[in-house]
Amino acid sequence: MFEDFPSVLTVDQMGDALQIGRTRAYALTAEWERTHGKSGMPFFWCGHQKRITRSALLWYVEQCWAQNPPAA
């Protein structure tokens, strides 16, 4: 699904992948930090910048899908 994306993404790239705005993308990483990993987008710090792995992005999409499956 996200094969064309690099293995490590910026928050803006993650937002582009999910087709969400920059503010929402950063809010997802803040949620991850605030909830100690219970919800939100997994990320790591690279210096003073947040980074998201492609596998974390896929995990997040799978979690969203599991919580909100499409209507049959």
Tell me what you see in this structure.
The structure is a single chain. The protein is an alpha+beta fold and 72 residues long. The chain contains 3 helices and 3 strands; from the N terminus they run E-H-H-E-E-H. The chain has helices at residues 11-18, 22-34, 54-67, and strands spanning 8-10, 44-46, 49-53. It has a 3-stranded antiparallel sheet. Strand 2 (44-46) and strand 3 (49-53) form a beta hairpin. Helix 1 packs across helix 2 (22-34). It starts with 7 loop residues before the first strand and ends in a 5-residue tail after the last helix. The model has no long low-confidence stretch (mean pLDDT 94).
What is this entry, summarized?
This protein has 72 residues and is α+β, with helices and mostly antiparallel strands. It is built from 3 helices and 3 strands; from the N terminus they run βααββα.
Compute the number of strand runs: 3
Poorly predicted segments? none
Shape assignment: globular
Radius of gyration, rounded?
12 Å
Largest sheet strand order: 1-3-2
The average pLDDT score comes to 94
Task: Please indicate the count of domains.
Answer: 1
Beta fraction: 15-25%
| Biggest beta sheet summary | 3 strands, antiparallel
How many distinct helices? 3
What structural category do the secondary elements indicate?
alpha+beta
Q: What oligomeric state do these chains adopt?
A: single chain
What is the straight-line distance between the termini?
22 Å
The helix content, as a percent range, equals 40-55%
* SSE ordering: EHHEEH
Write out key terms for the chains shown.
3-stranded antiparallel β-sheet, alpha+beta, 72 residues, 49% helix
